[in-house]
Amino acid sequence: MSAPTPELVLRPGTRADVPLVLALIRELAAYERAPDGVVAAEADLLRDGFGASPLFRTLIAELDGAPVGFAFYFLAYSTWRGRPTLYLEDLFVRPGARGRGVGRAFMRELAAEALRLGCARMVWQVLDWNEPSIRFYQSLGAEVVKEWLTCRLEGGALRALAHDRS
Question: What CA–CA distance (Å, rounded) separates 57 from 132?
Fold first, then answer.
């Protein structure tokens, strides 16, 4: 007799999931070699994701009722396409659940959500050393655009530019 196939459920994140989402964000940061990089707090996620005008949405993956991953996304806008873009900020599947179709299910659901929302595209980033993820995304038909580099202003540099009067 074969073992039963685990049931995979993807569902929208709720206010009650905020502690789980923050824990998964911290697990992702550790995987991405920046375990001390997360400064977000539960209050931040509650305020920005579950208020009157949410700035982001989440999906939670559960295998047999146990949480195994999350996707964190929001809408941006493509000036060239003249349509919204679904921007995937974070996708994380716990190590024990990898290779079981969770990532593919997330990406399929996000693609369907992008189409429901009238998006022209989905966009996300992947670290250049993360070869398993790069191969996975390419297997889905994603183009890894190497010509574009991420630019970021934060902290003191952001404040300095905002207050620059030269």
Answer: 25
- Residue range 8-163 forms a domain whose CATH class is alpha beta
What tokens were used for 26? Answer: 């911290």
Please write the tens of the pLDDT for every residue from 62-115. 999 999 999 999 999 999 999 999 999 999 999 999 999 999 999 999 999 999
The residue from 31, 73, 87, 137 that is catalytic is 137
Q: Closest Cα partner for 122 from 139, 100, 137, 103? A: 137
Report the predicted TM-score, pTM, of the whole model to 2 decimal places.
0.92
137 is catalytic: yes
Distances (CA, A) of 26 to 21, 32, 50, 106, 131: 9, 10, 20, 19, 21
